[in-house]
Amino acid sequence: MSTTASTIPTVLFGAFDRHNVGDLLFPHVAAALLGTKKLMFAGLAEGDLRCYGGHTVSALGQLAAQLRDCPVNFIHAGGELLTCNTWQAAAMLLPQDEARKMIARLDTHPQTAMRWARRKLGVCALAPYTVHRNLFPQAVRVVYNAVGGVDFDNNDPDMREEVLHNLQSADAIGVRDRQTQSLLAAAGIQTRLLPDPAVMVAELFGARIHAHALAGDLAQIRQSFPQGYFAVQFSADFGDDETLEQIAAQLDQAVSATGYGVVFFRAGAAPWHDDLACYQRAASIMRTSSARIFTSLNLWDICALIACSRAFCGSSLHGRILAMAFALPRINFSHPAQAGRLTKQASYASTWDTPGMPVVTNVSHIALAIDTALAVDKDLCRQISMDLAACYRQEFDALCAGIQ
User: Looking at the domain assignment, is residue 155 inside a domain?
Assistant: First the structure.
């Protein structure tokens, strides 16, 4: 019997083998839009993320061996994949305590770190979240979906060459910001520009998220802050005393001006992401008593927390994009050490966000940025949200033409 397009399995590949809201969302969005039952979910490591609202994930190497002689579609599901090296990927897959020890030991020894990471993951790649079609010799279609690489020009030359080689083997490449598109174009790689998959969450999963808003700790938080709250997040690298004091003071100022509360949450629990201890310290510094820490790591709980907030404020790109999907005010802030750098948050916002919405601010200007964001026209925010979802759906269908 001949193999038809509808019976060819589709492998969705990405960093959804660890806890990070954006990465966990990507395969949900792709699965909803593809509408096919023959989906396989692959990461660099085998894992079961269902307890966080994710998927059961197969290790890419094992899946490639299993499907070596089979026709297959392969989709890089999204994320800042073009600049994630093997050391970073391997470290983020470790348990927190083990990761801290390994990072402390190897982070300043890049060659040793890379050798360890390659052994750990069982790969020779320098950029393991980009895959050449040769890994699946019978591949029918290889797609990069809304990937990012704002710092691509800062990659090690060998890693840069590997990424370009892998990209050249793809049938279609979509990127999520103009900076990445420009850098790849300069290297001779043509791409389609489309928003991040997370712009689809309100349209695709609104009912599911609403149900999570009515249950558990979030229901209690909403009762505690009937006037509303800011959903606040920042990564562990903001955890020095001076930066935490600035964040706390700025949040106090925003609370005083609006009467809203503050709810700290983790957008990612993998190494190099968010740390509860930083939130506990920030809350203890704040003068106001209107601060809570939301501990759930469930993907849909986190989406609901943002969807029910008055505004998102944090360092996470996907915190911002989720707020965009629900037409809410949003700001990103940066660590003082990042001053002058074009970040993925800034590049994405400048590509897609509502005119007048603050982009990335220094921690010393959080309160002012929140005030500016709250004043942006709500009808315009809603229109941008709908336009982005429509754009993503159209461009995703173009990238995946022939897969369904």
Answer: yes
